[in-house]
Amino acid sequence: MAPADYPGREPQVTSAGAIYRFMLPYAAREVVEAFWILALDAQTRAMKGAPIVITRGILISALVHPREVFRAALHANAMSIVAVHNHPSGDPMPSPDDSVITRQLVSSGEMIGIPLLDHVIVASGRHVSFAEQRLL
């Protein structure tokens, strides 16, 4: 659910910066690691109901499985998705586990025809984009 004072229009996902700005109010409220997806339409606009919470974890991790990610994407009728999660530590650098799940999501998305366009990590006023870092 969006913060009470958050604008109602879902953004067009044109850059990691746009994703970061959209997700920052959600990530800032979390004290544990959380993992969301943005289900995107054919114009790469986040669909109604974005973001979709996939899981919440403990302070330094959140267990994520492609099955839950793509179940939500299929239910939303997404054309593509962006994965987003927060790092409550304040350091947005991807962990080895972040890289593993990203590779699994890319592979799974290719198989079912819902591509993962990016995975953005949000942390304390900074972000890292797997797409911008050429890690997808």
Report on the structure:
The protein is an alpha+beta fold and 136 residues long. Helices cover 29% and strands 23% of the residues. It has 3 helices and 5 strands; from the N terminus they run αββαβαββ. It has a 5-stranded mixed β-sheet, with helices on both faces. The longest helix is centred in the C-terminal third of the chain and has 17 residues. The protein is globular. The N and C termini lie far apart (28 Å).
Mean pLDDT: 89
Treating each run of at least 4 consecutive H or I residues as one helix, how many helices? 3
Shape: globular
Strand order of the largest sheet: 2-1-3-4-5
Q: Please identify the structural class as seen in this structure.
A: alpha+beta
| Terminal-residue CA separation | 28 Å
Strand content: 15-25%
Q: What radius of gyration results from the CA coordinates?
A: 13 Å
The low-pLDDT segments are: none
Number of strands: 5
Which characteristics define this entry?
globular, single chain, alpha+beta, 29% helix, 136 residues
Describe how the helices and strands are arranged.
Blueprint: H1 16-28, E1 34-40, E2 52-56, H2 66-75, E3 80-86, H3 96-112, E4 116-123, E5 126-129
Parallel strand pairs: 3-4
Antiparallel strand pairs: 1-2, 1-3, 4-5
Gist of the model:
By secondary structure, this protein is an alpha+beta fold. It has three helices and five strands. Helices cover 29% and strands 23% of the residues.
